[in-house]
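TL;DR need structure tokens for one chain.
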Amino acid sequence: MKLLGINGSPRRGGNTEILLNNALFGAKTKGAEIESIALNNLKFAPCQECDIMPENGICLIKDGMATVYEKVLSADAVIIASPVFFGSVSAQTKMMIDRFQCVWLAQFEYGKKMFLKARPGAFICVEASTRKDFFDNSRAVVKNLFATIDVKYTYELLVTGMEKKGLANQFPEVLEKAYRLGEDIVSVSRRR
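>> reply
TL;DR here they are.
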């Protein structure tokens, strides 16, 4: 079972990365093959909404997103992790999501099935304030991506009050929730 974690935070060693790594570790202890992509380490352009789009769902722009497409295609489960920036996911996460427009067109305009099976997915999101409504837009954006890539929104871990870098390490109950999320997503994936 292959689990892909996508880290949308620009901050290395921050709360988003800490929680994603705990989730991936939980999955690994259940026997999953885990892989993580830090979007900030990739060089990729935003969606250009090309005038001519191939019906096969393969983006015309050749850049770092090729790795993301390949790994999403082969994953048995996906975890997206992002901080909240101005009421939405990070720019890195949103750029990646927008680049799946080619996949959306292939599936919903041209009727091409891109993914062979539905897979479980999870969303890990942190934000600095204590306003839980700040997660609403981020969740909606990720759910739209998941619908496009045939991933069922199965789990979420939404954590408020995470302003300071590394603060998540001071909350064992939050780390445990991330770890359990990783374990649970493996169990759900194996039942499919």
